Amino acid sequence: MSEIKKLSLKEKIGYALGDGAANIAWRGVATFLFIFYTDVFGLSPVTVGMLMLVARFSDGISDVLMGIIGDRTKSKYGKFRPWILWTAIPLAAILSLLFTSPDLSSTGKIIYAYITYIFFTLIYTANNIPYGALMAVMTGDDKERTSLGSFRMVGAFGGGMLVQGALLFLVAYYGNINPDIEVSKLENEKYRVTVSTSKDVDNVNIKTEDGIAEFIWDGTELNSEENIPTNRKSFSMEANKEYAFIVEGENNLSESNIFIIDQKEGYSNSMYIMSVLLAILMFITFYTTKERVQPPKTQKNNLKKDFKDLISNKPWLVLLVIGLLFNIYNSIKQGIVIIYFTHYLNNQLLAASFLIGLMLASVLGAMVTAPLGNKLGKRNLFIYALLFSGGVNALLMFCGPTDIEAIFAIGIVSEFAAAMFPTLFFVMLGDAADYSEFKNGRRATGLIYSAGSFATKFGGGIAGAIIGLILGAYHYNGQDTASIQGAFPGIIMLMSWVPAIITVIAAGLMFLYPLTQKKLNEITLELNTRRLKE
Predict the structure, then answer these.
(1) Model's pTM, two decimal places?
(2) CA gap 208, 231 in Å, rounded
(3) Which residues does 294 contact at the CB level (< 8 Å), separation at least 6?
(4) Burial (0-12, 13-18, 19+ Cβ within 10 Å), 400
(5) Whole-number Å distance between alpha carbons of 67 and 59
(6) 144-157 burial by CB neighbour count: b if 16+ within 10 A, else e?
(7) Residues 336, 491 contacting (CB under 8 angstroms)
(8) CA 18 to CA 282: how far, in whole Å?
(9) How far apart are CA 466 and CA 286, in angstroms?
(10) pLDDT digits (tens, 9 = 90+) for 175-220
(11) Strand pairing partners for 70?
């Protein structure tokens, strides 16, 4: 009966911390890498979008290979746990390199971005597929697995909350260049601001604390292509050189109200800290979990049979497509939110509060998924959550830059339902593994869970391409404040109705999923009977 024993609270929390670590990496990349590449590293949005899409074409192969390798791994720690240990430090290291900005030519930057991003996806695969599969072999009870899935998602959203909530404040702290600032009042709500620093800085961003006043370069012809009034200016600074602006639109402006951030140093140093924490959490997961469910003792390694079983596994095929779609939905929202707050709302740090609100809603959503799933059935709950989250999210198209309360309310309510997607998805992959064993007498847990990693990464790649293409169509340039304002319609549609369309498609396809709760109860009873006879 060891395979159906109740899991201890310590083991559930230990397992959850692993997804907290994974989401430091994944949500950190999904939320911040696009704006880092465009606004700091200097790549065009179309280049970034194509990078994120092209890098995904290898994922189908690498994910399946990792599932096969995991199923065939033999060690004293089990099949899947050792991979969490072996990949902890490499994953932390490649995450740090993603947010490092070496001084390279334009071509060199693109090559560096491709190499580091592809290596990130490969190492993430080697870590996350075994981690996901571990849940299916910690217990053979589908209801206990649903509980474990809720713990996992609380951990995942906790890690996401940490990176999304803290990173922008860390960027502001580590990006502080200690500039010399002088503010001279010219007339009511109009000032001359001069800034300088003692070192060369490749990329700084200057704005007021409230983000309302507009900057123009002093001494440059007004309304020239390079000097349209904007709420912030991005530029490079030479050591001991004075830069002057005319700033207009706020009362009582002083030196303390002017913010100048070195985004390059800020992002890099902040992500280095997050990477160390990631490795520590992975080690805790490894040492607190245990594998219990084993393949049938009579099962022989047969790759051809494993693939045949996989392709005939209807629940898995449906989940593969659904997982792809809801990850496109989530990744579009995560990828555009910092750009939306930075440029449309003129308050980047407010994005941190927004993201924390979303993560708190996500934790609540994950916590209620298990009882709601047991009451309504996982398939029905998935459909309801998709339609509700997408419908509410589409309301953001009606919000202007001053509708802060409405933006927060819509985002939080939508995210509460969206949190149920990954919670249900990874639990249902375990159900698909049980279905395969029930139907075919064979179990390939790692191969089944390769769908989860593939859907997550390829969905994120498609989302990145969608963001890049739409922003590119509106001529967005993260280092040119004039072009940013012209891209506002594209930013708004990406934040609202574009992702919502995805949820409608996914909800329709979810009706094809065949595993009702009645069928799952039958499968669990039969498999436990078989295991007791072995």
Answers:
(1) 0.72
(2) 8
(3) 137
(4) exposed
(5) 12
(6) bbbbbbbbbbbbbb
(7) yes
(8) 5
(9) 36
(10) 888 899 999 999 888 999 999 999 888 888 898 887 788 888 887 6
(11) none
Q: At what angle do helices 378-393 and 348-376 cross, to 10 degrees?
A: 150
Amino acid letter for position 256: S
The per-residue b/e assignment along 415-426, b for 16 or more CB within 10 angstroms, e otherwise, is bbbbbbbbbbbb
What DSSP designation does 205 have?
Answer: E
| Cα 488 to Cα 339: distance, rounded to the nearest angstrom | 10
Cβ proximity of 182 and 194 under 8 Å: yes
Q: For the chain, how many residues are written?
A: 534
SS3 246: strand
d(CA 134, CA 289): 9
Q: Are 204 and 236 in contact (CB under 8 A)?
A: yes
Q: Is 201 helix (H, G, I), strand (E, B) or coil?
A: strand
What is the Cα–Cα distance from 259 to 22, expressed in whole angstroms? 32
Task: Kindly write down the DSSP assignment for every residue of 270-329, as one continuous string.
Answer: HHHHHHHHHHHHHHHHHHH--------TT----HHHHHHHHHT-HHHHHHHHHHHHHHHH
Q: Do residues 87 and 126 make contact, with C-beta atoms less than 8 angstroms apart?
A: yes
In the structure encoding, which two tokens stand for residue 225, read together? 């292509």
Instruction: Kindly state the helix (H) or strand (E) to which residue 148 belongs, with its residue range.
Output: helix 142-174
Question: What distance in Å separates the CA atoms of residue 192 and residue 244, rounded to the nearest whole number?
Answer: 7
What is the C-alpha to C-alpha distance for residues 93 and 500, in angstroms, rounded to an integer?
Answer: 35
List, for residues 332-383, the tens digit of each pLDDT value: 998 899 899 988 988 877 888 898 899 889 889 988 998 998 888 889 999 9
Amino acid residing at 367: M
CA dihedral sign of residues 484, 487, 490, 493: positive
CA distance 288 to 155: 14
Give kind and range of the element (H or E) at residue 502: helix 497-510
Q: How crowded is the C-beta side of 282, counted as CA atoms within 13 Å?
A: 30
Closest CA to 162 of 308, 358, 298, 305: 358
Tell me how far CA of residue 396 lies from CA of 352, 385, 406, 499, 530, in angstroms: 18, 18, 8, 11, 52
H runs (alpha helix) in 341-495: 348-376, 378-393, 404-418, 420-440, 445-473, 481-486, 488-495
- Which residue, 264, 294, 291, is CA-closest to 11? 291
Inter-residue contact 239 to 202 (CB < 8 Å): no
Closest CA to 398 of 390, 389, 387, 410: 410
pLDDT tens-place string over residues 393-412: 999 999 999 999 999 999 99
Q: What is the pLDDT of residues 238-261, one digit of tens each?
A: 999 999 999 998 888 999 889 898
Residue 200: how many CB atoms within 10 A of its CB?
11
496: phi then psi, degrees, rounded to nearest 5: -125, -85
